[in-house]
Design a protein that fits this description.
This protein has 12 helices and 11 strands. With 333 residues, it is an alpha/beta fold. The protein folds into 2 domains: 156 residues, 3-Layer(aba) Sandwich (D-Maltodextrin-Binding Protein, domain 2); 137 residues, D-Maltodextrin-Binding Protein, domain 2.
Length: 333
Amino acid sequence: MMKTKTVFLKGLAAIIATGTILATPLAAEEVTLRGVSCFPIGAPPGVPFENLVTEINEKGKGIVQIDLLGGAPAIGSPFQVVERMAQGAYDIAGCPEAFFGNIIPEAPALRLQEKTFAELRENGAIDYFQEISNKKNVQFVGRHHDDGAFNLFLAEGKAIDKADLTGLNLRVSPVYTAFFKALGASVQRSSMPEVYTLMESGAVDGYGWSVRGISPSWYPVTKYRVEPGVYRASIHTVANMTKWNALSDEARAVINDVVIGWENKMEGTSDYAKQLDAEMLKVFEENGIETITLEGEEADKWVSMARETAWDEFIEQNPETGPKLKELFTEAQ
């Protein structure tokens, strides 16, 4: 009888031990996300995302990694990157809003922001934008880089002295198309790699681009940079929402910490941002790119035209969400 009882107790202990092992959560396996960029790998506007991926991979060892598969246009049109990501072709991407307005029409609000991203997170602007993005299976993670304001860059012999672009043919993206047209320019769109050829051949007289993101290969065909700058050339980390929700809390925390860390570091008034601007101004000077600064009424016209045309176009295209986004993203005027 005693022997039977002993065997029973040993068996019970084994069952309890086994149950304890089974109930103990297994360590989560490292997850690898398929990452892509809306810019060519190595191009100035794409490098911040590449650096972001490197930092996430360093801090996410054993938790989450990003396999950077490539960048547009090698992987396809930059205007389709986020759309394909939302459909499941990729898991995470680094893109400016200009390249995902086709899937999220409200995306331009991100370039028209007049408040810091910290303020936008606090006042509910990012939460509201997140609601809109999620409906398209896109998770807005954050703004990992700010390439500064957009400037107009012009070829030699194409200098302007007022807010009038009549007679100029300019290369554009959706960012400033309405603005340049409102000031009298004719416009044409092209991919980033085509800008040099268009400028060198004289097919276009200038192009709009972010002050910190201009390609060094364009310096020889660029003579002037027009101030004041307008909008913000923000580059964002976005993810496939389904994939994002399937990540562990720990994996999401790694990505969020890195992205929002850069979001805060890149605020326009930070010492780091000022340093980047100073470095770019030095580069322009060394490469013979002169600055044209519009002043007084002409500067006011330039800035107000940029703001008005952008928001008028935005609200016309987004009549239901536009007014609220303008209220959340801009300073009252």
